[in-house]
Amino acid sequence: MTRSKDQLKKYRAKRNFSKTKEPKGTKSTKAKKHIFVIQKHAATALHYDFRLEIDDVLTSWAVPKGPSTNPKDKRLAVMTEDHPIAYAQFEGVIPKGQYGGGQVIIWDRGTYRNIKKKDGKLVPMDQCLKNGQIEIFLNGKKLKGGYALVRMKDKKNWLLIKMKDTYADARRKPTSTQPESVKSGKTIEDLKHIERKGGK
Ligand code: MN
């Protein structure tokens, strides 16, 4: 199953690109490595957008509490519309009144690999997505190691869970201790402050 660029219809319909600097996603940008990005987004409710490159788009979930490094935490992850690959570069302010209005920072990013196996064989990512059973190994700046995304029975909500491995750490709490962008070093509060001053 290959998903076409039409996957981004919903994404575009929600946005006015003459008013927001978010990418339109009209160009097909094929990345060689599979990327992931986690954007901290201070919209109406603060959340972390967890995005995985699958089939030329960023498959996306909104995680209200953000990711944990503790395997005992099961973090709610609500699937949202696919985003263009170029969105992984986006950091800045979505104007007030626009869809998702608020500050966005790139909280973490890097590459990932699929580690989901069945009968000793890797299950292709698009199949994992269909099955609602994703297991990936993240190589980010803040997050590393195995993470599982498991779809619940209601079919919309998923759980994001740190898998047990050497990178698991119940005490680390990176969302509290490392709130800054891995791109600019800025925090959401820094962006709010810049906005208030009306400058850069
Ligand atoms: Mn968001």
Given the helix and strand composition, which structural class is it?
Answer: mainly beta
Q: Report low-confidence residues grouped into runs of 5 or more.
A: none
Instruction: Estimate nothing, just give the exact number of structural domains.
Output: 1
- Distance between the first and last residues' Cα: 44 Å
Order of helices and strands: HEEEEEEEEHEEEHH
- Proportion of strand residues: 35-45%
Question: The biggest beta sheet, please?
Answer: 8 strands, antiparallel, barrel
Number of helices: 4
Q: What is the strand arrangement across the widest sheet? A: 1-2-3-4-11-10-9-6
**Which kinds of small molecule does this entry bind, naming each only once?**
manganese (II) ion
Rg, Å, rounded: 17 Å
Summary of the model, kept short:
This protein is mainly beta and about 200 residues long. It is built from 4 helices and 11 strands; from the N terminus they run αββββββββαβββαα. It has one domain (about 10-195).
